[in-house]
Design goal:
Elements lengths: L2 H16 L14 H16 L8 H18 L1
Length: 75
């Protein structure tokens, strides 16, 4: 994955993480930027990494195919 795509994903995850401080229960709390950044990293994994534990055979094969294709493109 290129740097631009990583930053695009992190930007979206940062926005989602920052929304926590906009909720009624938390709007009076001071935003912790370091906490937001670490939470965004977790969100990126949750949002974009495949959940293979519950995947069908077709989904597993598709994921393997994509990983193989990506490996060959990097070389």
């Amino acid at each position: 994955m290129d740097k631009k795509e990583v930053e695009r994903r992190m930007g979206f995850a940062r926005e989602r993480a920052a929304q926590v401080w906009c909720e009624k229960k938390t709007e009076n709390k001071v935003m912790d930027v370091e906490l937001e950044e670490e939470f965004a990293k977790i969100l990126v994994v949750e949002m974009y990494e495949p959940k293979l534990g519950c995947a069908s055979t077709r989904e597993l094969l598709e994921e393997i195919k994509v990983r193989i294709e990506n490996r060959w493109q990097k070389k």
